Amino acid sequence: MTSIADIRKSYERAELNEDASQADPLNQFDQWLTEAIASQVPEPNAMTLATVGSNLRPSTRVVLIKGYDAQGIVWYTNFAGRKGQELAGNPYAALQFHWVELERVVRIEGVVEKVADAEADAYFHSRPLDSRIGAWASPQSEVISGRGVLVANAAKYAAQFMLNPPRPPHWGGYRLKPDTWEFWQGRKSRLHDRLRYRLSAEQQWVRERLAP
Questions:
Q1: Tens digit of pLDDT for each residue in 121-151?
Q2: What is the mean predicted confidence (pLDDT) over 62-78?
Q3: Residue 156: domain span
Q4: pLDDT digits (tens, 9 = 90+) for 77-114
């Protein structure tokens, strides 16, 4: 039997240095995400979201980025689920992208706020019909007796709303407003490149190299 302790990989695809990196972390992120999409890595838009509940226990789950700009990183979800409840009590969160094939990781930390209703409405109505019905059908994070509950709920709301389901009041978007970014590029001999951007008191981005 192979020991997982013996699984190793040498990272040698690329490098990340101060001269070649962007001064603004959003531009660096845009560059790397664009390269991930162009490289056709699996689900380049998938990111791990970490939140912390009132019991101080962290939890993670994978969500999909749906927008990004100078205001922050946007995703959509059910507000009533565990992540929504935890964000309501503690609005600080972290995101992580891991593009394995490119040997790259991006970590982002900051405060989270809900997107405006108009923005959430516009995105909701751009979704496929079955996804809009699904937003009504799933009582996210609640214990249910079986999959039949979801199927029955989907049938009920499909009959109720037909082709035009409205956005549920418990569903919408979040925006994480970064105050810290970290870009990690795997390198040989575990001497990885790590560049951190932190927001200074003057609201300027400070770029720093971290030891791996």
A1: 999 999 999 999 999 999 999 999 999 999 9
A2: 98
A3: 128-166
A4: 999 999 999 999 999 999 999 999 999 999 999 999 99
Total residue length of the chain: 212
Tokens of 103: 């040997």
If one counts every other C-beta atom within 10 angstroms of the C-beta of residue 183, the result is 24
Based on the residue annotation, tell me whether 61 is a catalytic residue of this protein. no
Cβ neighbours of residue 12 closer than 8 Å, sequence gap 6 or more: 186, 187, 188
Q: What is the pTM of this model?
A: 0.93
Number of separate domains in the chain: 2
Pairing state between β 72-78 and 46-52: unpaired
Tens digit of each residue's pLDDT (9 = 90 or more) over 159-184: 999 999 999 999 999 999 999 999 99
Domain-embedded: residue 20: yes
Closest Cα partner for 12 from 186, 183, 211, 184? 186
Catalytic site residue from 190, 194, 198, 207: 190
Our CA angle for 48, 202, 184, nearest 5°, is 30
* Chain centroid, CA 33 distance in Å: 12
Inside any domain, residue 77: yes
Q: 129-137 and 147-161 helices cross at what angle (nearest 10)?
A: 120
Specify if 6 maps to a domain. no
**Is the CB of residue 102 less than 8 Å from the CB of residue 14?**
yes
